[in-house]
Amino acid sequence: MEFNKGQKIIGIRVLRDNVIWLWKNSNSAVVIDPALSQPVVEYLKANNLNLEAILQTHHHSDHIGGTKELIKEWPNVKVIASVKEKDRIPFQNLSVRDGDKIRLLDNEVQIIEVMGHTKSHIAFYFNNNFPVLFIGDTLFSAGCGRVFEGTYKQMYNSLRKIKLLPKNTLIYCAHEYTKSNLLWAIDLEPENQNIKNKLKEVEKKLSLNELTIPFLLDEEMKINLFLRAKNLKEFTFLRANKDSWV
Ligand SMILES: [Zn+2]
Known about the structure:
Layout: E1 8-14, E2 18-24, E3 28-32, H1 38-46, E4 50-55, H2 61-64, H3 67-73, E5 78-82, E6 94-96, E7 101-104, E8 107-113, E9 122-128, E10 130-136, E11 139-140, E12 143-144, H4 152-163, E13 170-173, H5 178-188, H6 193-207, E14 215-216, H7 217-223, H8 225-228, H9 232-243
Parallel strand pairs: 3-4, 4-5, 5-6, 10-13
Antiparallel strand pairs: 1-2, 2-3, 7-8, 8-9, 9-10, 11-12, 13-14
Helix pairs in contact: 5-6
The structure holds zinc ion.
The site of zinc ion has 4 residues, from loops.
């Protein structure tokens, strides 16, 4: 799929299963949740790109670990994070809240608060020829984030917000967890053909060393048991079941 004005998003795999997303045009880039700085610096310098902004979905170290070093390299970079995280993401210089709109790479980007994984997790949404969502650790392909600080109800409501987005939204999450999520889902729904097909597709991609993300919201609706949960009770059962699954 092609963005308007030749824009692109590329993923850099780092640490065990993190993915750093770089959204770029021909001279600038925006990085989402830089776990590390070095691969980002290398890529941007090799491609002669200025770092315009760093987007932080939440404060966990595998999302903000590279930010300080990136600020040293690009002192004018905008560091965009939740206003509720001034203590835990102290280097933020553009604080945002739910519903705010900011301009990045000539696009209007909307902030959507999605609590549950943490008490102030945010997502970034924009539409550039097709809709895009950077969702951090709230939703994964075939899975969702653990409920660390928030409540099950908050996480359930966050997933409901995601479901209201256009069905062709392309979702970029921060971890490559798809295969293990699908194995769990098959344990619960062994007859689900959609999940079986997806597992085959995912195993093929992984064998070719490709990422299994981003993913499309409408395809995800067929295979993600968390998105399909009919009510809070069902969601809570699934989340607890997944937490204890080995
Ligand atoms: Zn996290």
